[in-house]
Structure formats: C-alpha cells, structure tokens
Specification:
Helices cover 75% and strands 0% of the residues. The radius of gyration is 23 Å and the shape is elongated. It contains four helices and no strands. It is mostly helical.
C-alpha cells in the first residue's frame, strides 16, 4: 500500500496544476508521483551507474566481444600508456 504525503502549496498553484493534469488525462497525485520519480532518477547516481553499465554491456554484446576479448583490450590499452 502506498503512503500518503502531505504537501502544502498555494491554492492557485494547486488549481492550475489540477487543471493541467486533467487536460493530460491525469489527476494531481499522478503528476506529483511522476515528478518525484523523475527527480529521484535524475539524482540517483547509483541507478545512473547501473544503467550505464547495462548500456555498455549491451554494446559489448552487440559487437560480439567475449569476456576474454575485454581482458585483452584492457591489457593492450594499459601497455600503451
């Protein structure tokens, strides 16, 4: 079950936000949940790093590299420094 969060905002802002949310087919709670989720995702460095590693892994797999290939590439780069 979801928890409630009480937020105090200006009545005019609430009215405008509710109107915009309704226009998008959402209610204000859905909009606020979306905004908070986006806020956390943008600032969660751990999740960002996990996504980065996943993208790197996908690219490596697309190119057909094996774990052994990666080790060889790393060793070659280290020798050339």
């Amino acid at each position: 079950m979801a928890n409630q969060l009480i937020v105090r905002i200006d009545p005019e802002l609430k009215m405008k936000a509710s109107r915009l949310a309704k226009r998008d087919g959402k209610n204000l709670s859905e909009v606020i949940r979306d905004l908070l989720e986006s806020y956390v995702k943008k600032r969660d460095i751990g999740a960002y790093i996990d996504q980065l590693w996943n993208r790197i892994g996908d690219k490596i797999a697309e190119k057909g590299f094996t774990e052994e290939d990666i080790e060889t590439i790393i060793q070659n780069i280290r020798k050339n420094k």
